Task: structure prediction
Amino acid sequence: MISSIDIQHVKSEFPIFDREIQPGSPIIYLDSAATSQKPRQVIEAITNYYEQSNANIHRGIHKLAEEATKAYESARARIGNFIGARSQREIIFTRNTTESINLVARSWGKANLQPGDTILLTEMEHHSNIVPWQQLAQEIGLNLAFVNVLDNGQIDLEDYHSLLEREPRLVGFTHMSNMLGTINPVADMTRAAHAAGAIVIVDGAQSVPHFPVNVLELDIDFLAFSAHKMCGPTGIGVLYGREELLEEMPPFLGGGDMIKRVELTEFTTNSLPYKFEAGTPAIEAGIGFGAAVEFLESVGMENIRLHEQELTAYALDRLEEVPGVRVYGPAADQKGGVMSFSFEGVHPHDVAQILDSLSIAVRAGHHCAMPLHEKFHLPATTRASFYLYTDKSEIDRLIEGLYKVKEIFN
Amino acid sequence: MDDLYRELIIDRYKNPQLQGSMDPHDYSYEDDNPLCGDRIRIDVRVDQEGTVTEALFSGEGCAISQASADLLVESIIGKNLDEVKKLSTEHILELLGIQLGPVRIKCALLSLKVLKAGVYGLEELEEELL
Ligand SMILES: Cc1ncc(COP(=O)(O)O)c(C=O)c1O
Result:
C-alpha cells in the first residue's frame, strides 16, 4: 500500500523530532491526543509576529497594529473556511475546547434553559463536556441524561433515540472519543436531535485535527475545538456557533473588545464574533492557529485520515499479538488513532514508565474520562495516540517496548 | 529503568510479605488516588506502650504504590507510634532505593499518607505533608 503522505517529509517539518532524548534515540511521541507537536511553520509564524508585528489588535491606528489585526483576522477566516462555516462571525476565539463548551453552557444555557429541562450527553464524554453541564444543572435545576456506550465502544443508538423522546433542549456529544477512539455518526445524530427539537453541541477536540469536518454538512449548531491538538499553539481554541444562535445569546465575559459603547451604568454589546471575546486575546496563538490550519491543508485532511486509518489497523493487529494486552474501543474502520489498552498484571503507570525509559511517550491514567473508565471497570489505561507524523516503525518500537514490560514483570 | 524497576520493587509487588487485613485493629485507614486508581488500606495493632506489634496492607495499583506499602508496613513493626508519626518522604525513598518524578512520587507516598492518616487524623497530616 502506498502511504497517503510522505512521512519522512512531514516529520522533518517538526523540529522536536531532531531532539534525542537519550543519545541516538529520538523521541517516539505517541501522545498526540493530549497535545500535538508543532511544525516549524507554526513556530515561525509566532516568532515572526513577535519580531515583526507585535501590537495590540483592533483599535490601533498604526502600521504594527494594522498588521497584527490583519494576521489575526485572516487566521480566523482561514479556520472558518477550514470547517465550512458560512461566515467569520461564526468563529469565536476562546482559550480551548473546555472554554468553548463553558461559553455555550453559561451563555446559551442560562438564557434558554428552565428548571426541569433535560440535557442529553453520552457516557463517552471528556470531563470538559460533562462538568460545565453539571454546574449548570446544579444552578438551575436541570436533568442530565447519558446515552449508553456499548461494550464494543460504540454509542448505543437505540438508547440515543429513546432518550431523545424525553425532548432534551440540548444534546452534546464528542465527535471522537479520546479514550476509545470511537468516531460517532455525527450527521445521523444531529439529524435525530434536531427532529426532537434539540440544539446540538459537538466536541470536536479529537475530530477536527484528524479528519475533514464540515459544520454545514453535519448540521452542527455548536462545535468546540482546540488549536494545540492540531499542530497549533496552546492557549487558543474555537467555538463555532450558528450565527442565528450566537446573535440571540448574551455575552459571556465582560470587558474591553466585547462592547460597542459603555456608559457608567450600561453597555451595548459589540457585533459578532467580538461580542464573545472580552479583553486582549492570545494574538500570537491566533496567528499560530492560522498557520497550523494552513499546514494541515497543505498535507490534506483526507490524506491525514487515510494515513491514520492505516496506522490504526496496523496498531490494532500488532497490539493483539502481545499476550495480556487488551485494546478498548471499536474495530479499525470505526476508530481514530487512539489506542487505550490494559496489560494484564501491570498497572498503566508501570507500563508508561518503562516505555518512557525507552524514549516512548504514552499516557497513563483516565484521560479525563473517569465515568467511561468506571463503566469498563478500569482504574486507568495506557494510551498510545497517533498523528500525521507517526509512522509504522514507531508502532513496532511500541510493541517491542511492551514485550520489555512483559519481561520485567514476568 | 532497571534502576526504577529494581528487583526488590518487582519482587515485593508480585510477592508482598505483609498483605492482608486485621479485625480487630487499633488503627485502620484507607485512601485512594483517583487519578490513577491506586488504593491502599493499612491496619495496625499496637501494645500498651504504643509500639506497633502487627501491621498489614491491602489494596491495588501500580508496582511503586504496592511495593512501597509492603516495605513501609514492614518497617514500622516494632516502632513506637511517635516514631511512626515522624516518618518522612525520605523514609519511603530509602526503602524503595530510587528517585521518583513528581507524578510517580504520589504513588510511592500514598501508603505513608494512609498510615499517618490512620494514626494521626487527616487534618494534622495534611498540614505536615503539604
Ligand atoms: C474529546 C476531548 N474533549 C475535550 C478536550 C479538552 O480540550 P482542552 O483541554 O484543550 O480544552 C479534550 C482534550 O483532552 C478531548 O480529548
In short: The radius of gyration of chain A is 22 Å.
